[in-house]
Every structure is written in C-alpha cells, then in structure tokens.
Amino acid sequence: DSGVTQTPKHLITATGQRVTLRCSPRSGDLSVYWYQQSLDQGLQFLIQYYNGEERAKGNILERFSAQQFPDLHSELNLSSLELGDSALYFCASSVAIGATDTQYFGPGTRLTVL
Amino acid sequence: GDSVTQMEGPVTLSEEAFLTINCTYTATGYPSLFWYVQYPGEGLQLLLKATKADDKGSNKGFEATYRKETTSFHLEKGSVQVSDSAVYFCALSFNQAGTALIFGKGTTLSVSS
Question: Mind listing the pLDDT tens digit for each residue in B54-68?
C-alpha cells in the first residue's frame, strides 16, 4: 500500500459526459502528479500540482483540468469525453517539487467511455 | 525531446533464469534514471533509481547502472522468481520544477516455474 488513495476504482460513462477523479496523497506529500496509461500511448504525464499551485503541464488536453485543494487532495476533471479517453488514470505524490523525488503511485482509476 | 526506449516484450523466462531488460535514453542534460514496476492490478512502485553517471541502483536483487557513455540503464537480476512477473518501466526526470517523469513503453516479464 503506497498510502495514495484514488476514487473511484472504476468508472463507466458515455461519450460527451464529464467525470471527476479524486486523489488523496500520502500524508506529508505536497506534490501531486496525474498520469494517463493507455495501450497505444503508454504512460503519459498530464499535470503536476505542488501545495495547491500548478507547477508542470504535460500532454493534457484542453478538455481536462485539475486542481489541488487546501487539504492537498486533488481532482482531475475530464469533460466532453471521447472513446479515446478510456484509460487508466494514476495519481502519484511526492514530498518535494522536483521530479527526481520518489513518486508514490495510487492504484489508479480505470475509465471506460462507451 | 527527452525520451526513453525499452526493449519490447513480453519477456518470458523460467524461474532462476538471468534477466536483462534494456533501457536507453535521450536527454538534454543529466537526468536521474528510474525503474518502476507494476504488478497486475496495482499502481507503479519505485524499484530502484540512480541520480548520476556510474551510480548503481539496487533493490530486491535487481540492479541497474547509469551509463552516460552509452546512455543506458539496463535492468538485471541474477535469478528471477515467479513473483517477479510484472510490467517494468524505465523512466527519467530532471531535478527541477516544471518537469515530470518520462516513461518508456514498459516491458512485460512473465516467469514460469
């Protein structure tokens, strides 16, 4: 158990819909990262927050957004969903802002768009 | 841009066989290098890392040496077990704000008894 929790574990929805994925980092960790894992794209970094502020942006679509709240949990919002958004979404947390610090991954949320 | 290339799997071995999973990288600058492992149905876990050239990372019998001259970070284990069956990801990152892990495609290892 990494100490990072993600909810829900599975999500099935239809095209055009909007969903919210939630992540609680390990106690004491200030950085939260979001990754998307799909068969064709592999594991892709989406976005990083550090202590409530956005610090790095990767291959995140404009239809996706995220935020980190004062209690340090984070949410990833995916809207106008397309079939190609079906993937496993991971959250990871670390103590520091730099990416060389060990990142602890949650179990993931599997999103299926029908 | 920065990238990581891993050998394609799946890699299928018998228990106690020697394992090598090749990983090479392309990067501007001097990244830190990582191996993460993903067991079925779970998230990724850090297996080992190295932060500078010639460093050797090791954990649970796995080893990898940061080779700047060949831009490689190959993962090795002398004697694999069935419980090592998983997907292994090589990754790099830089210790500066605004960066994140860049992963290879992953290599599936299947070990049979």
Answer: 999 999 999 999 999
Residues 60-89 of A with CB under 8 A from B: none
Residues 6+ apart with CB under 8 A from A71: none
> What is the per-residue pLDDT for B28?
86
Contact status of A95 with chain B (Cβ, < 8 Å): no
DSSP assignment, residue B72?
B
Q: Give yes or no for A45 touching B (CB within 8 A).
A: yes
Q: A107 to chain B nearest CA, in Å?
A: 4
- CB of A3 within 8 Å of a chain B CB? The answer is no
Classify residue B67 by its DSSP letter.
Answer: B
pLDDT in tens, A69-85: 999 999 999 999 999 99
d(CA A75, CA B2) in angstroms, rounded, equals: 28
pLDDT of residue A102: 86
